[in-house]
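Thread: "does anyone have the structure for this chain?"

Original post by V.I.:
We have the sequence but no experimental structure in hand. Need at least a predicted one for the grant figures.
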Amino acid sequence: MTCKPFVVAALALMVPLAGVIHAQDSGPYKIVKIQLTGGDGGFDYVTADPDGRNLFVARSGPAGHVGVFNLDTLAQVGDMAGVSSHGGAVDTSTGHGFATSKPVTMFDAKTFAVLKKIDTQGNPDGYLNDTFNHHFYILSHAEPNITVLDDKDGSILGTINIDGAPEQAVADGKGKIYVDIEDKSAIAVIDAATMKMVGKYDVSSKGGGCAGLALDATNSILFAACRDNKNMIILSATDGHIITDLPIGNGCDGAVFNPATMEVFSSQGDGTLTVIKEDSPTSFRVEETVPTPARAKTLTLDSKTQQIYLITAEFGPVPTPPPNAPPPPAGTPAWMRGPRAPMIPHSFQIVVVGKE
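Reply from O.Q.:
Generated one for you, tokens below.
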């Protein structure tokens, strides 16, 4: 199946910003746009392609698809129908992209035509494209925890077991991959050349349930955004020693570092975006907490405009839980406990945060 690019004019509506902006903390960052795009399906990750000027938004479920939006206008420019996935990314140099569907979908980064389906084990979820060796890493809570693909042809190069549930991965551009292990309060260190785990950093003294991970590659500093203590653990990527930790919101599911501004961003499902400033490799502070729409828990950075993109939707009332329902696992954020509220149809939206 192939899909050709097209422009969608419907639903190009602006969501009123008054309620969110009024509550905003003082600081350099503001919500500059909320674009209602609608469409069916659940949602998880969002990924920017700054070079191609595209934004990839994966939707899951029976109506799953990958929508492609222009980064500058947010007009829809493509769609991969029938690709139910958690997210996807592209490699500019090879011209190929991958979506973590089951099986994994390989597509053309410019035309968005589906090129092939790749059967991998586990349950494809998170992902990382490493431009150091042009490998695409598929993260899965079930073994194998990481499957490595060749960006050139989609061939499976190997698998890596990190003995836990990977959530987010980052690459230092020099041959090291770091992966936060959500259920083990640890960060795995992987050698990209040998595709083996060569170390593990324990962060349990400061928190756990780390679901966001960012990296200052120049100064070799990792930022692990954790749910259990609602904090950002800042540690050395060289030896794992913890430098400090700072408070963030509740229900983080993503983090990103911007080397142009020396800031790390953490998005939370409770409707907050935490901005932490790196004043020096040993000095960090919470610069701002930007209120966002609820459940905007994942994010991506456009490195050319320095803007942050988040995705969310509006939800109806939470249904009454069935009798004798088992309790949620320890540490589960309040907004994730019990029955999930139903998403209001056609309320899906892209949120843009930047400096006005």
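V.I.: this helps a lot. The longest helix spans residues 18-22.
O.Q.: and The first strand starts at residue 13 and ends at 14.
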